[in-house]
Structure formats: structure tokens, C-alpha cells
Amino acid sequence: MDITVWGAGAIGGITGGALTRAGHDVLLVDVHAEHVAAMNRDGLSVEDSRGDWHVPVKAAVPGHVRGPLGLVLLAVKAQATPAALESIVPRLTDASVVVSVQNGLNEEAIAARIGATRTVGCLVNWAADWIGPGRILFGGPGSFLVGELDGRLTARVKELADLLSAVMPSGTTENIWGCLWAKTCYAALLFATALTDETIYDVVERPFPTQQMLVRLVAEAMAVAEASGVRLVAFDEYDPELYRRGAAGDRAAVEEAMGAVSRFYRMHTKVKSGIWRDLVVRKRKTEVDSQLGAVIAKARGMGIGTPLLDRVVEMIHDLEDGRRTMGLVNLDELVALT
Length: 338
Description:
- This protein has helices spanning 10-21, 33-42, 81-88, 106-114, 155-164, 176-193, 200-204, 208-227, 240-247, 251-266, 274-282, 288-302, 307-320, 328-335, and strands spanning 2-6, 25-29, 44-47, 53-55, 58-60, 69-74, 92-100, 119-124, 127-132, 135-140, 144-148, 171-172.
- By secondary structure, the chain is an alpha/beta fold.
- It has an eight-stranded mixed beta sheet, with helices on both faces. A four-stranded mixed beta sheet has the order 4-3-10-9.
- The protein is globular and about 55 Å long.
């Protein structure tokens, strides 16, 4: 099977490199020409606390990719999905499959473009960072699940889970939308942590008013998911039931929810979010509009208020445009809204 990893940054780079190490025929595609050149010249190097590794890989910029494409693992930033599809779709066949190895609800846009039968969803909750051309940091383990959009447990998703286990222990789910929505709801907390220069665990360990605000922030997104008929799924450091109870006033649930996040990230090499990295290191736009913005748009259509989500999006935009500085005062501003 020919495999194309479209977007060879943090998640895509490790995915493509690990599959190559496992003996698969993989092409890594990225718009960053210097990154592509480094990979073709020197291979891909991964820094991993469990043991660094290096593998020769094949890489190309999008304009040099020839079709047809069989299996595409789409790993670009959410906001880059439409542009990536412009290049990918003409190279697909009726038998092609696109797996979204991304954050957000990109499967909606992919399926609208190529059909649900050629689209597979994926929950990615392991961590990585792009640290330079040809160099990736593995940040820590986490869930890796694939599922059909209609919930069927098919031979195809079982084979994909087996394939992706070369990257990270993988599994299947009959509720991929519950997984994707859960990760998107929980992402609201990660966006809030990126309003500061603190580690994720330092933020969630702050005094109770901040913890309560973070729970209510996530709960706003959960209300939209549940109004859409989605059954949210627990994974790793996130349990939706704790957030429901916490948002309803259960202090112990708030503390338990934040404790789970703290413990998870204290075990990781990567202790700040990719959102923070986009703002501080990469100095580029975040996925806030593609993730939280998408949730807010759905909320508006259903008449659901999202005051905390709205403010977080505004504050991230301020940081992107240089109108605001990072700091704990930003969290205080959100606490004042609760």
C-alpha cells in the first residue's frame, strides 16, 4: 500500500517516519521547502525521551506529488485543510481513503468534498513538536483511535488501526464523532492555557476560581456537542462527566478534572500546547477559528450562548495580532466572566 502523509510537521512527521521505519512505502508532503529538502538530504530525526531515532524518508512539496494516491493521512493544521484538499482531491481514485490525523472537526469538510465513504476519522491525543527542518520532538503518548464516520466497525478501520500501531498503540471506535467532539471541547482548556506563558499543569493547578472557569469553558463547548446529538467520549486526561458535574457546582469534580490534566502533562516532555508554540515559537496563526470558532458558529445556529468561548477566541486573536501580551492576568479576565 502506498501511503502519503500530507503535512509532515509534528504529528505528520512522526507518523510518516514511524511507518517508514516499519517498512511501508511512505511519501511525506509538506509546504515547507526547507523541511522537505532536509528530510530528503539527511532523513528525519526524532528526539524521544524513550530513545532518539532517525530514518531516511521520501519527501516532496505539494507541487511535486504525482497521483494516484491510495491512503492519505492528512496532518496539516486545521485551517490549511481546504488548500490541502485542492491538491489532494484531483489525485484520488474511487478506492482512495483520506484519514484526518488532525485536531478539530475536519472530517466534516473532508467528507463534504470527497464523500463519507472515502473519509475516516481519527482521534490523536499523543504529543509532538516540530523543532526545525528534518527534526521532530516526541512529546508524550496518548490515545490514537480510528473510526468510520457512520460508526460501523469495518475491516478497513481495523486494518488502519493495525497500520497506525507502528506509530503509537492504536485502536478503533464506533463513536468517532464523540471522540472528535470530546477533543475539540477539551481543546478550549488548552487555548486558555496558551493565554499565559505557564505550563499546562501550572495553569490547571491554580486556585479554584481558575479551575472552575476552565471547567465552565469546556462545558460551554460540551453543551453544543450534546445539543447536536453527540455522545462525548472520555479519553486520557479528559472525562466529560467530571466537567458536567463541575459546571453544575460540584467542587470535587472540578478538582478531579484538573488533577487528571495535571497528572497527564507532568508525565510528558511536551508541557505547553501547540497553540502556545504557534504563538511564541512559530509566530503564526493558531487553529482557534477552525476549532473553537467552528463550535461557536454551531452554537449560534442553535441559539446557545458561549460567552467564555467567545472571549477566549478574541483574546487569542489579540495575541496573534500583537494587541495583547501573555500573562496570568488574561486568566483573571476570564474568571471575572464566570
